[in-house]
From TrEMBL:
Coiled coil residues, start to end: none
Intracellular or extracellular location(s): Cell membrane; Membrane
Topology relative to the membrane: Single-pass membrane protein
Principal location: membrane
Name of the protein in question: Penicillin-binding protein 2
Lineage, uppermost ranks: Bacteria, Pseudomonadati, Pseudomonadota, Alphaproteobacteria, Caulobacterales
Organism, as annotated: Brevundimonas alba
Length: 687
C-alpha cells in the first residue's frame, strides 16, 4: 500500500502566515510596476510632451527642397539671351511604385522615347533620395501631358507637373560665350568636397541644373539663387496628402547678368559666316565693351539642358570644324599679315625711320635662301606706309632684325598679345610670341645646344605673323582697339552688371606706352589698306554708310608648306586661314572688329574683309549717333580716273557675296599653323 507525501503545519496560524507573505511580495511588485509606469507616462506626457510632439510632426510633415528660378542673362539692351520657360514634365517616385520596371513599361507605352533611355532613368531613380520625384522626361507636348494625367491612376508613383526649364532663345548664336546648364554629377560633388566646402543639399535634387561653360559656369553662384522648400503632409507610406502653405519657404531667384554683347550684332556675325568656321570679336574702342564674341560653327545649347544624347554629342565632338570649341578665346591661329601692324610699331620704337625705302623685287635673300613676297613681281620701293598698305613681305623681311625678336615680343605684349583677360569667362589661351628666352626655355630638354639659340633668320617668319606666332581673335580685337584708341591700353569687358551692380569699365586703364606719332603712322597705314584705291582691301572695305570710312588690315596664314606646289587644295584642313582686322569710323574711332575664317582657302581681303564689313555695318547702324551721321546728306562724290561709281561707297546687295580683290592684289597666306616648337622658314608667305 503506497503512501502520498503530505505537508503538515503545526497549526493554522503558520499556514495563514505563508499566504500573507506571498501576498505582500506580489502586491509590492505590482505597486512598484504601477509607480514606474505612472512615472514614465508622466515623463512622456508632461515633461517630454513638446519633444515628442515635434518628432510626431516631423513624421507627419516633410520639407522638400524647391530649385530656385535661375537668373536671366541679357544683352546690353535688355534682350534675354538665356532665360527660363515653362515646361511640362513627367516624374517618378521610386518609393511609391510597386514595381519600377513594370511602371516604366507602362509609361513607355505612353511615351515611347523613354524606352531608349530606360537604363539612365533607372540609374537616376535609384540614386535619388527617398520619396524624391525624379524627372523622366521634360518638354512634354500638351497631348503627352494630358495622356499621362489621363492614365495617372494606372501608373502608381508617376506624376506630371509644370516647372521652369532653362531656355536659350537664340540657339547657337551665343552658345560658346553663354555656355549651357546640365545636371550636377559626381565630379561636381567631389570638387566641392575637395575644397572643404559643404555640398548644398539642392545639388542632389534631380531637377536642379548648374552652369557648365561660359557665363553660365563663371557666374553660376550668382545665377543659382537660393533654394526654397515645400512643407508637405505625408501618410504612413510617405506619400504626399497635403501641403502646409504656412510652413513652406519660397525660393529666392538668382541674380540677373547683363552683358555688353548686342544680340543683333552677334546674330549678324553668325549669319554672314554661313558654313565657314572661325571666330569674330567686336569691341568698343572707347571703353572695351565687347559687342560680339561669336564662334562658328556653333551648337544648340538647348540640347544640353535635359541631357544631350551620346550620339549627338559624339557627332559634335568628332566633326572636324569643332563646333564645341570657342574659337574666339580658346582657339589659337597664326595672325598672318595682320601682325605686321605690331611689327611696324616695334620697328618705330626701335628707331627705324618710316620714310626709309626698301626695294621689293618679289623676294629677299637671307643666307642661302630666298624668301618670296606674296607679289612675285615685286612692289618696288616701299616706305613703311606703303608696306602696310600693300602688305609687302620683303619690307618686313629686310627691316625686322633692326628691332629683333625680343623687341617685337615686348611690343606685342604691350599691344595686347600673350595674355588672358578678366572678362568673367575662363578657358582662355594666351597664345605665343617667340623670343630668344622663349626658345631657350622651350628647347631646354633638347641635348643639342643649337636648338636653344635664336637665329636672325627665324625673325623673318615672326615679322609677318607666321612661324611660332599664335594669337586669339580676342587678342586681335584688343590690338586693333588700342591702335584705334591711340591713348589707352583698352582691355575688354564682357559683363556689364551682376544683380544690378555695374562692373568696372575697360577704359579704367593706364596709357599706352607708345609714341602717339608712332601709333598714328600705323593707323594711317590701315586707313590706306581700306580707302586708298590701290590698297589691298579697298573694294571690300567700303561700308556704304555716308561719309563713314573703315580702316583695316588683311592677313592670310598658311597651314602647310607649299614647297614648289600649288597653295590651293580641295581638302578643308589644308586650306589657308583668312583674317581681317578693322576699326571705324576712321575720323572718330568707335568700334574695332577682328575676323578669322578658319581654312577659308582665300585671301584675307576676299574671305574675311567682306564679312567684317557687314558686321561693322550692323554695329554702326545700331549706334544712334552713328545712325544720325549716316542720315546726313552726302558730300559731293570725288572725281578722278581712279574712282568710279562702281568702286566707291556701296556695299553689295548680297551680304555673303565675297567681292574679289583687285586683280593686282591676289591674296596669299603667311605661315603654317604652329602650336608647338619653332617652324622652318617659309619660301612663299603671302599677305
Amino acid at each position: 500500500m503506497s503512501s502520498e507525501p503530505s505537508i503538515f503545519f503545526a497549526d493554522a496560524n503558520e499556514r495563514q502566515g505563508s499566504f500573507l507573505r506571498r501576498t505582500f511580495v506580489l502586491g509590492g511588485l505590482t505597486t512598484l510596476a504601477g509607480v514606474a509606469l505612472t512615472g514614465r507616462l508622466a515623463q512622456l506626457q508632461v515633461f517630454q510632451a513638446g519633444e515628442y510632439a515635434t518628432m510626431a510632426s516631423n513624421n507627419q510633415f516633410n520639407f522638400r527642397l524647391v530649385p530656385p528660378p535661375r537668373g536671366e542673362i541679357k544683352d546690353r539692351n535688355g534682350v534675354v539671351i538665356a532665360g527660363n520657360r515653362p515646361s511640362f514634365r513627367v516624374l517618378v517616385v521610386r518609393d511609391e511604385t510597386k514595381d519600377l520596371d513594370q511602371t516604366l513599361d507602362l509609361l513607355g507605352r505612353l511615351l515611347p522615347d523613354t524606352l531608349e533611355r530606360r537604363r539612365s532613368i533607372i540609374r537616376d531613380v535609384n540614386a535619388a533620395p527617398r520619396f524624391s520625384p525624379v524627372p523622366v522626361k521634360s518638354d512634354l507636348t500638351w497631348e503627352e501631358f494630358a495622356k499621362v494625367n489621363l492614365y495617372a491612376n494606372e501608373l502608381p508613383g508617376v506624376m506630371a507637373d509644370m516647372n521652369e526649364a532653362r531656355f536659350y532663345p537664340f540657339g547657337g548664336a551665343f552658345a560658346h560665350v553663354i555656355g549651357y546648364v546640365a545636371k550636377p554629377n559626381d565630379r561636381d560633388i567631389k570638387a566641392i568636397e575637395e575644397r572643404g566646402e559643404k555640398v548644398p543639399e539642392i545639388l542632389y535634387n534631380p531637377g536642379f541644373r548648374i552652369g557648365r561653360q561660359g557665363v553660365e559656369k563663371a557666374f553660376d553662384a550668382d545665377l543659382r539663387g537660393e533654394a526654397g522648400g515645400n512643407r508637405v503632409e505625408v501618410d504612413a507610406r510617405g506619400r504626399v496628402v497635403a501641403e502646409d502653405i504656412g510652413g513652406s519657404r519660397p525660393a529666392v531667384p538668382g541674380k540677373d547678368i547683363v552683358l555688353t554683347l548686342d544680340a543683333d550684332v552677334q546674330n549678324r556675325a553668325l549669319e554672314v559666316y554661313g558654313e565657314e568656321s572661325g571666330g569674330c570679336v567686336v569691341m568698343d574702342v572707347r571703353n572695351g565693351d565687347i559687342l560680339c564674341m561669336m564662334s562658328a560653327p556653333s551648337f544648340d545649347p538647348n540640347l544640353f539642358v535635359g541631357g544631350v544624347p551620346s550620339t549627338v554629342y559624339r557627332a559634335l565632338a568628332d566633326y572636324e570644324r569643332k563646333p564645341l570649341l570657342d574659337k574666339t578665346i580658346n582657339g589659337v591661329f597664326h595672325p598672318g599679315s595682320t601682325f605686321k601692324l605690331t611689327t611696324a610699331l616695334a620697328l618705330l620704337e626701335a628707331g627705324v625711320n618710316p620714310t626709309e625705302r626698301v626695294v621689293c623685287t618679289g623676294g629677299y635673300r637671307f643666307g642661302n635662301r630666298v624668301f618670296r613676297c606674296w607679289d612675285h613681281g615685286g612692289h618696288g620701293p616701299q616706305t613703311m606706309h606703303d608696306a602696310i598698305k600693300n602688305s609687302c613681305d620683303v619690307y618686313f623681311y629686310h627691316m625686322c632684325n633692326r628691332a629683333g625678336v625680343d623687341k617685337i615680343q615686348d611690343v606685342a605684349k604691350k599691344i595686347g598679345f600673350m595674355q588672358t583677360y578678366d572678362i568673367g569667362v575662363s578657358n582662355q589661351k594666351a597664345g605665343t610670341i617667340p623670343s630668344r628666352a622663349w626658345k631657350a626655355n622651350y628647347n631646354k630638354r633638347n641635348p643639342n645646344p643649337e636648338s636653344r639659340v635664336w637665329f636672325p633668320g627665324e625673325t623673318l617668319s615672326v615679322a609677318i605673323g607666321q612661324g611660332d606666332v599664335n594669337v586669339t581673335a580676342l587678342q586681335l580685337a584688343v590690338m586693333t582697339s588700342r591702335f584705334a584708341n591711340a591713348r589707352k591700353a583698352i582691355v575688354p569687358r564682357l559683363v556689364k552688371s551682376v544683380g544690378g551692380v555695374n562692373q568696372p569699365s575697360g577704359a579704367d586703364v593706364p596709357d599706352l606706352p607708345f609714341s602717339r606719332e608712332h601709333l598714328e603712322i600705323v593707323r594711317q597705314g590701315m586707313v590706306a589698306v581700306a580707302n586708298d584705291v590701290s590698297g589691298g582691301a579697298y573694294r571690300q572695305s567700303q561700308l556704304g554708310l555716308g561719309d563713314i570710312q573703315m580702316a583695316g588690315k588683311t592677313g592670310t596664314a598658311q597651314v602647310r608648306s607649299y614647297g614648289t606646289g600649288s597653295r590651293k587644295s580641295n581638302v578643308w584642313a589644308l586650306k589657308d586661314h583668312n583674317l581681317f582686322v578693322a576699326f571705324a569710323p576712321v575720323d572718330e574711332p568707335r568700334y574695332a572688329v577682328a575676323v578669322i575664317i578658319e581654312h577659308g582657302g582665300k585671301g584675307g581681303a576676299t574671305a574675311a574683309a567682306p564679312r567684317a564689313r557687314e558686321i561693322m555695318r550692323t554695329t554702326l547702324l545700331k549706334d544712334p549717333e552713328m545712325l544720325e551721321r549716316i542720315q546726313r546728306p552726302l558730300p559731293p562724290a570725288p572725281e578722278g580716273p581712279d574712282v568710279t561709281e562702281d568702286s566707291f561707297g556701296a556695299a553689295p546687295d548680297d551680304p555673303d557675296g565675297l567681292a574679289p580683290a583687285p586683280a593686282a592684289r591676289p591674296a596669299a597666306p603667311s605661315a603654317p599653323t604652329a602650336s608647338t616648337g619653332p617652324r622652318p622658314y617659309l619660301s612663299e608667305p603671302r599677305r
